[in-house]
Structure formats: C-alpha cells, structure tokens
Amino acid sequence: MANAVVQPIEVAQQTRTPSLGTLNYTNQxxxxxxxxxxxxxxxxxxxxxxxxxxxxxAIMLVELFSFAADTVxxxxxxxxxxxxxxxxxxxxxxxxxxxxxxxxxTPPIASRAMFSATIPSVLSADLAIPGGTTLPIVTDQNETIxxxxxxxxxxxxxxxxxxxxxxAGNLTNTRVVGLEGSGRTDTFVGNGQTSQTITLTNLPVxxxxxxxxxDGIRWAQVDYFTDNQKRREYRVEFDSNWTAFVVFGxxxxxxxxxxxxxxxxxxxxxxGARGNIVTGAANIQRNFVVNGLGFPIPVTFxxxxxxxxxxxxxxxxxxxxxxxxxxxxxxxxxxxxDYKTLADQYVTPYLGQIGKSTAVLRNQGCSGxxxxxxxxxxxxxxxxxxxxxxxxxxxxxxxxxxxMATDHVCIRDGTVIPVDVAIDVVVDxxxxxxxxxxxxxxxxxxxQFFSLNNWEYGQTLRDTDLIKALSEVAExxxxxxxxxxxxxxxxxxxxxxxxxxxxxxxxxxxxxTFQ
Length: 515
Hints:
By secondary structure, the chain is α+β, with helices and mostly antiparallel strands. It has eight helices and 25 strands.
C-alpha cells in the first residue's frame, strides 16, 4: 500500500471549442435570431439537413427558441436599464434609485390664492369662520377642486388651526389665504416596535402638510434621525404615487411611540397645477353663526389674486435631472454650480419653488468673493415669474446654512424674455383632414422644445433648433419659424439672451398651407 499511486478522477484540460464562424452577440431580436439559427444549422450540418421550410417541425422549434431568447434578452436589457438613473424608464424605479442615495423628489405642492371674506352689514360682535373651511371651485377645464381657507400671518402664510375673524364694525377681511386641496385625519395605534412605519390612507399627499401627534403631543418632522437621542420626531417618505409613510425612530435615534399610544396624523391631499385658478374664479357664499345672534350671517368669499405655485410633483424627467446634480453638490455650496443646484431645487410649501437660477461670480476689484444668484420662481408647469421678497428671503437663509463662510451671496431677480412664436408649415393637401391632429402634434413638440428642463439663462433661441425639433412631425414638407419680442432688433429668426436673461414662449401659433 505504501507504493500505491493515487489516481485522480479527472485531469483538468483546456476545452477545445469548435469554431462557429457566424456566431455573434449583436442582433438579439426575434427575426435576427431566427435567421442566425437557420444559418447555423446549415453550416453545422453541411447541407445534410434540409428540413427548413416554414411548416416544418424544425422551423417551429427555431421560432420558439427565437421568441424565448428575444423575450429574455429584452427583459435583461430592461432590467439593466432600470438600475441606472440615465436610462431608467419606470417612475417607481427612479424613486428607488433616489431613495438609495438619500435624494427626496419633490411631492405635489398646493396652489395658493388670496381671498376676501365679506358680510353684507357690520356686526356688533366678531364673526369667527373656522380655519380650514372648504370651498368647491370649478376651474376653466370644468373640473371641481377644493380650496381650504386660513387666516394669514404677518408674512402672508396660512396660520393653521386658527379662525378667520371679521372684527366687529368691519365688513370684510382681506387677509385670507386659500390653499388648494382638502384635509384628512388618520388615527393609528403605537406598537412599541423599532422604526414603526404607518401608511397614510389617502393620496396624493401635499408637500410639508403632514402633522403627527402622539397621545395629544405634537412631534417634530425631521429629515434624518441624527442625534442619537430619544426625541419626539418622525420622518415622512413618499412612493412614486405620492402615498406618504410616517416613520418613527429606534430609541437610539428618535423616540418610539409606546405600545398602545394613540397616533393622530393630519395632512392634506391634492396639489398640482390644476389649482392655479384665475382671479375671481371663486365667488361663493356660506352662512355662519355669530354668538348672540339667532340667525346665520352670509359670508361671500372671493379670490382677488390668481392661484399660483401649484405643482404636480417630480416625475421621472425631474428626478433624472436633479439627482446627479444633488449628488455632486453634497448639500453644500462651494462652486458656482453648487449654488445653482441648491437654488434650482429649493422648494417651499406656500411660496412656490425656484424655477431657474444662475450663479455669477463678480470679478471686479475686491469683489472676488461676491456671488450674484439670479432667480425666477416657477409659474405653472413651464412658466417663470419674479420671485416674491419672502421667497428670496427664505432662499437666502437656506443658502447661508450651506455656503462657504467667506462667500457673500446677493440674490437678484432674473429677467424673462417673452417670445411670440409663429410656426408656418407647408403640408401636402392629402393631409388636410389631419389638420387638427397635426396642430396638436406640432404644438406638443414646440412645448417640449421650450420645456424648463431644456433651457438656461443666456441660452440663444434659434429657428433652426426649433425646426429640428418640429421635424419629428414627418408629414410637414416645409417649416418657417418667426420669433417676436418687445425688442424689434432681437426678433426674427434668432433671439439672444444675456447671462441674467432666459427665453420663454409667450404664445405659440401654428399656421398651415396645404399644397
């Protein structure tokens, strides 16, 4: 046995791979796979197998394999695309990527308008109107929406939980804030477990509207549990449908609601550009009781400003654009691009959000650390308007917490160049019956071209660029585009913008010539 030789079961050798001259890994669709399989069979069998006519069993098997391989290849490609922010196609997956890196897409924002409350004659006692009174309003699109009314504080923001008062001896109160949407209240029971998460029952939940009380004590909303202390705090997360989730702490970071505690969550649902009503859209009368009087008093509510700041919430395009910039900035301002990113992504619950900004470093004399931040607030889905003083003040405080200590930031108003866009097209008379459809398609292409995501300060508007975008409508034979601004010297086929100016369409018209 001492001289016994241990024989291996198998000796590893290099595998001899047969040569497959036509094998490649490029075309993975059904028809390419079928063709390549037929060619492979002919090559491998050297003409000894000729059963390749369309009704044969061999072709059936080839087609079944091609279909299965095409489906697998498609799903593999789709899965690969969904893990990268540049190629993701599903909103839910874009939100998962954002959550993985700590980025929070902006939820829907409620439109805001100022209202007056008027009574027909003066009273000897104060008339108190409950805060949160809801008014149904019919929009221009014949859609009924809800506005809730609250008294305005000194800054013009709503004072939640307070009554609207028409003082004795007065006919009206003009400091009434209307917020689109409606209020909801959900109740839950604490389970005493770590990181208890509760799902709110109504959606879409409006940005910064969630208030939580545990056993009647108001808790504070935070972005992160960071203090390693048992504080009364909670976080709010959203999914792609704008369902809200309230998350509590672990007793090491954030307090856990005790087992059996009563959790009350009040919040608002709605939001979106549909709430941007025109001035005077509401003229509604409601009756309210005054203490000491035996009859109700009619109160007329009218919005004397337009509804503004309504936002539908970030979609996949917004997440795809904002996320990389957010990661580069790391929530601090060092470079000019950092200042621009922080401003572009700044959102408030009642004052709207920044639509476009640009950061400009002064280079004159001793002003090396002075930076001018030009901003414009979002107006609707694609418009821009001057930001209010309150908005700019709020933004200044936000920037100050993140800027370099040696930098001085001046927040200034950007300038919009309104442009009337006239599109003249020549179309074959065969398509005359499709005029309305072509008009919609061309208008949609133009609106996409002028999307806020595609425009920056100082960007020049050229007719050739717009024509290139419109050329997606293949039925059109010829385009002629003319731009008109308040400056005749800056009109025609080109509109130039300075570093603090941005081009926005004021009107888009399409004219047809059928030949």
